[in-house]
Structures are given as C-alpha cells and as structure tokens.
Amino acid sequence: MKYQEKISLYSRYSTLTLLLKFIATLLLTNKFTKNISLKLVNFTINRKVKFITKFLNNVYFGGETLTEAKEIVNFLGKNNIYSVLDYAIEGENNEQFFDDAVESTLKLINFSSNEKKIPYVVIKPSSLGAIHIYEERTKSRTFLEENSDAWERVLARYEKIFSYAYKKSVRIMIDAEQSWVQSAVDTIAINSMINYNKKEPIITLTIQCYKKESLSILKDLHVIAVGNKIKVGVKLVRGAYLEEEIINHERAIGSVFSKKEETDYNYNVAVKYIAENIGFFSPFFATHNEVSISNILNEDMLKHKPCWMGQLYGIGDHISSNLVNSGAKVCKYLPYGPFNKSLPYLLRRINENAVSIDTFMRENTIIRKEIISRIRRSIK
Q: Which residues cross the membrane (predicted)?
C-alpha cells in the first residue's frame, strides 16, 4: 500500500507536544529502549510526575471525562474519522464498581446514539464482573453457591447493556480478555447475538489472532450465524495479552503462536475467511500492520461492503489518514477516564502485538517531516 503522507491529524499538537511525541516514537522503534521507556512511564505515573502525565493524556487519551472526549470526537470527525469510545478503567474488583460501570456504559450509549461519528461503544468484561468468576465459569460448569449468585449478576449487567443498546441502535464492542476469561465472555456474546443481531449487528466480540485456535473460533461463529440467521459482529485483533499468557501458561487455555510472523499470517488468513463469508459477518479490522491493511483493501469481497478498520488514538495517524483517502471507513479507538486507572490499557497494547516497532518507525519519520516543515514555515 503506497501512502500519500497527510499531516492534518498532527495539527492538534503544539510543536512542543509534537517534539515530545517524536522522542516517544523514537524510543519505541527499538525493542530495548521500548521496554525501558514503558517501565519509566510506569515509574513516573506512580510518582505522579505531572509533566509526563499531561503529555500522555493529551496524545494518547481522549481526556478524563466524556465532555473532554467529545472534543476529540469532533476533531476526528472533521477529518472523516470515526471514534470508538472506551471508558478504559482497569484494576477495580468490587460489585459497586461493576454496577457503576454499567451506568457509565448506558450514559455512553445514550450519548453515542446522537453522535453519527461514534459507531461503537466498548465494554470490557473485567469491568462487569470479577476475573475469578469468569474463570470458574470458563473452566467449570458448576459454581460455588456464592459464585453462582455473582454470575447471575454478571449476566444481568450484560443484558441491561445489550437491551439498551438494541433500543438505541448503538453497536457494542466487547473487548478481549485473557484466555482463562475469554471462553465465558464468548458464550455470553454468542447467546446475546442470537437475540439481538437479527436485524443489525448490535453485538461484536473480539478474536485474538495470536491464539492458535482463533480460526476455528471464527469458523464456529460462521456456523452459528448460518444456523440462527444472524450477522456476527467480529473485531479482529492480533492480541494484547501475549506476555501474560506465556507467563501464566499453566492457567492459560489453548495455545499461542510463539513468533510474530505466525500471528501476522494467521491474522491475514482470518481476513480472507471473513471476506469469503462476508454475508454472515460484520467485521471490524483493528490493525496498524500495512500488509494486513493492503490485504483488506484488496479483497474484492470486502469492497462496497460494510466493514470498519481501526487504529489506536495517538498511534498510526498516517495510517488512519491514508485509509480515509482510500475511501475506507476508519475509526480511532479512543480511551478516556481517570488517567491513572486507564493507563494500563495503553501500556499493554504498546507492549504486545497490537502495535509493531515498524509502525512507530514509520510514524517517527512522518513526525520529523512535520516538525521540519513547521520550523521552515516559522522562519519565512
């Protein structure tokens, strides 16, 4: 895919912020400096270094409130880029937090129903129930009595969200989790799709292509779609828990590819399968990989079909801009919320397969050109 480099998305940055972004992407172009940088970010956040916090929040997040996020939604909309809003709080584990997350999601659904530039609302399974409850459901069909009640509350939270989204005609994207959680999440998603995806794909689940069984899951979803006369919403990603899966291999379910090249190949095979059966899928291709993007754009069966492509907010702006220029429907995955609680979301995605070093190298080159261009204009 040949890119015509556009820089309009960089106009939202001051020259100082752009210079800091240049340094950040430069550090992320090398595996050694990348790991050190991410550890340094964690350290500075824990020490509440305001300068670093402000920079990261301005560049990679939509703000701490929905009002702040709306400003970014409007800006992206002017560039014909849609937004996928994600209230990206992580790390809480109590019933009140889970109930509050539902209410926040309902407000976001209501907000999105009046915003043409927000096609999806994201929910994170771990914000709706305790990890150990999902894990017990994944690994066993029987519950301890107290966990059985907790599971029923989890199901009720999903139902409340899905029914309201259906009423408002807003699509829900279910984020991926670790393998010891994912099976239970997929069961909820599939059962709910059968109820709510008859007319339009209200519910979308996520398939992580670093998992060796991901193509089998995709084929199973195809069978379910045919049998129930529904369209299955599928978000295709490489995955963001690889290191955690490897470290917790005794806890993990299934297996993962050990090489990035294998994951890349599997992702592209999955794209091909979806394209060949597009009548039963409503796909969202989340990728910064230029080879995968070219494959998607060149798939004849996907041309003139309703599918989306997405990148993380603040990363790969050159990719998003050029996809828009090619006529694709493009989203930026826009997290917002209390910064100290949502930062793990970003660090995990940068550290895993979600964003490759090649992406940062390409972006670093374009940012350098933009900085030089600004300096030249200021001299004239």
A: 12-29
